[in-house]
Amino acid sequence: MSAINGTLYAVFATVGTIATATAATDRICACKSASLNVNMATPDASTKESAGWWEGIAGQKDWSIDFGGVWDEALTATKLSLAEIMALVIAGGAAMKFTFIPAVMGVATPGWKGMGFFTNVKITADMEVPCEFSGSVKGTGALVLFDS
Fold it and tell me: Which pLDDT tens digit goes with each residue over 92-110?
């Protein structure tokens, strides 16, 4: 079996449209974890003819990304920093392009992209441990296979 190492995947965010190119500097700095979540509602479509069995239909879809890491401002010159993410949330700007892709672009492993908003960004500052952050991306519109 050829397992894919989770370290390969990263979250990138860039101002622009779905067609905007993704650059290495768009990568969220110092992430330790990232999860892409894709959901589809299945409304009940059961009738008397269902003979007691549940029947459903394909309903509305949504997607999100959860991420977390260690706050490290020393690396921010080449990646998207927590301070920049906080500034985007505070400004309440337009939707951004988000990608969940292999950090080394150009590999054959699949990735996905879509427009979304940063949400629920949190900084945890416990005593005598690294300062950590977490947050979410809420997608708006379709999630599609990454091509650039």
Answer: 878 999 999 987 765 667 8
Q: How many domains does the chain have?
A: 1
Q: What is the pLDDT of residues 130-148, one digit of tens each?
A: 999 999 999 999 999 988 7
Which residues lie below 8 Å from residue 81, measured CB to CB, with a gap of 6+? 29, 73, 75
Q: Contact, 99 vs 109, CB < 8 A?
A: no
Q: Residue written as tokens 């894709």? A: 38
To which H or E segment does residue 118 belong?
strand 112-124
- What is the mean predicted confidence (pLDDT) over 80-102? 91
Where would I find the beta strands (DSSP E) of 15-111? 31-40, 61-70, 96-102
* Host domain of residue 137: 6-39+56-145
Report the predicted TM-score, pTM, of the whole model to 2 decimal places.
Answer: 0.89
How far apart CA 56 and CA 120 sit, in angstroms, is 32
Whether residue 114 lies inside any domain: the answer is: yes
Does residue 61 form part of some domain? yes
Sign of CA dihedral 73, 79, 83, 85: negative
